Amino acid sequence: MGSQKIKVNLDVTGMHCAACARTVEKTLAKGEGVDSVVVNFANHQAFIEGDSEELQYKDLVESVESVGYGIKTEKNRYKITGMHCASCVSRVESVVSEMPGVIEANVNLGLEEASISYVPGVMDFEKVRAAVVDSGYDIEPIVDESEALKKKQ
Question: What's this model's pTM, rounded to 2 decimal places?
Fold first, then answer.
């Protein structure tokens, strides 16, 4: 099965003018797997079309940061069960890091937790879960009780 062409919208931060948008557009266009890019200054978004298997989100984020702008990312914590050693940690980090939209995955064996930075709207948690489960572990989001209270109010 070959790779698929996809469309991705990324929220861009730090742009102040049309020249900023052109700089971000040129930078993103150089990314691996990117076929086309349009950056809209008015809504601070980059619209990318590319190859689903070749797009390297971490590289896209880093390249935009290198020219003074940013791509909105989020970071969440997840409970990981079934790990017993450093090899388990390495395996989970590797599997998660390979998932589309994941920027970084750090796993702590002692806490049985993973901290995952990702591009919102790109990372699909259910696909991450399936990959982790296929590797012999389990993963569940950690709900921060203070965040849950904020959402209820």
Answer: 0.84
Q: What is the CATH class of 74-152?
A: alpha beta
* pLDDT tens series, the chain, 153 aa: 457 899 999 999 999 999 999 999 999 999 999 999 999 999 999 999 999 888 889 999 999 999 999 999 999 999 999 999 999 999 999 999 999 999 999 999 999 999 999 999 899 999 999 999 999 999 999 977 555 445 555
Q: Identify the CA nearest to 80 among candidates 131, 44, 150.
A: 131
Q: Could you tell me the fold of the domain covering 5-71?
A: Alpha-Beta Plaits (3.30.70)
Cβ atoms of 125 and 67 closer than 8 Å: no
